[in-house]
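Recap for those who missed Tuesday's class. We walked through two folding examples back to back. For each one, the amino acid string is listed first and its predicted structure tokens come directly after. Nothing is annotated here on purpose, so try labeling regions yourself before you check the end of the notes.
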Amino acid sequence: MGRAEIEAALVLLRHLGVSPSDLAAGDAGAGTAVPTFAEFVPQVAATVSAGTLKAYGSYWNRVVDAWGSRAIDEPTPLEIQQFGERIRSSRTVRRNGRDGRGAVENYIAALRCLYRRAVANGLIREADNPAIKVAKPRRLPSTRRALPDARLAEISTVAATTGDDPELDSLLLRIHLETACRRGGALKLRPMDLDEQQCLIRLREKGGTERWQPVSPTLMAHLQEHVLRRGAPHDGQLLRYRNGRPITYRRYDGLWVRIGRHLPWVATQGISAHWLRHTVLTWVERNFGYAVARAFAGHTDARGEAGSTTTYVRADVQEVAGALAALTNEAHPAASI
């Protein structure tokens, strides 16, 4: 084929809106039926982690309800954006809500999760992924802040003097106030994760991360006592009700609702366990610096971190134990190593 013929062919392709790369890639998924949302969503749901399913499952269900019979390559970016606005307008309005930004952000993330798997399995081309073409709402700065000691004392007093299981609620608060862990980390704690001799607990948190976190001798003793009294199996969930049944996120929800009834400022500001994490890490950063606070929090080198400099400012478990010793005013065996 001569140069003139090639130029003519390129002109024709441009006229048809087709690029040479489109021809080279071929029609992705040719010969393969593109599934409907009703068919594809259950397949994806069966492959993701429990945490991902908890975060995205409700949005996938709404998409199936609305678009179940449609092929996954049918919705346009505009339709996806419009559906997000429907989710925003029908959301449950909460005191700490931010105009539905979180709901729309999670919905778009849920669809991107679906379409990433569709691309990976050759059902659609990357260039035809409609979810990636819809921008997430800009995330606003967090309104959380460190709580002063007097406010923490009020919260602890209410937890320890009200409710049907003050012993459990006080233990929950102490875990978070010493380790700054997330709720998921506390709920995944098992008796086999307790290193009594070194006063360390193994925390397993989001993203499949694991770390050994120092705790005070007093907290370790309470955890061991809780295991014995409530019959937690060695490889099962540690935190349990008096009848031996494992607790869930509902215990946290009920705890903060109850504290909010006694302390109106807690309800008004939407205080939760994550505020305790914020409080502890702020104190550690102010007193021991960024590196120790970062290690205390269990942060990794994932995207969004400060950059390659963090390679040289990592703190170890001994430094975290030193910060904990100062926080709790109790000596820690790892801090003196």
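Example two. Treat it independently of the first, because the proteins are unrelated.
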Amino acid sequence: MDLDRIEQLLAKYWDCETTLEEEKELRKFFNSDSVPTRWQAIAPLFRYYEHEKKNGQLDGLFDEQVLAQIDTKRAESTGDKGKVVRMFYDIAKVAAVVLILVTAGYFVREEYLNKKDKMDPYIADTFEDPKEAFEETKKALMLISKNFNKGRKEVEKVGVFSEAQEKIKETEAL
């Protein structure tokens, strides 16, 4: 057989591009006794394919046994036990969702209450007696008025300074 042709067929075989006839030709070559030493390592592969083709046939009982096992598995899975197990899983899923929602609601409520407690001193009344609250408010307003009057006096000083500056500008312009 032509060794160059075998080399080309092997290259095509390793690239998965051979036809069935070409693979048959390769099997025939590698099953012969005249295989060159450079291809001795891959010869058992092709011999194995040929050996399995001759001796590895499945008998007719194999299909029947497989189909019988499939039918028994199908009968087991469609029984009442399967329905109970599936129903249990469905209930467990619903219970898990409810548990997650309740837990999330609890933590959101706690966070809201914590924030509300922190804001209460600013919002809640600090005096029980309205007269006492009125007196305290009066004191706060007097303090603001006193400081406002101090600021007004300072602004008047700036006003005097501004008037002096205007007079200087007028005299310079003349």
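Answers for example two:
The chain has a mean pLDDT of 81.
The chain has six helices and no strands.
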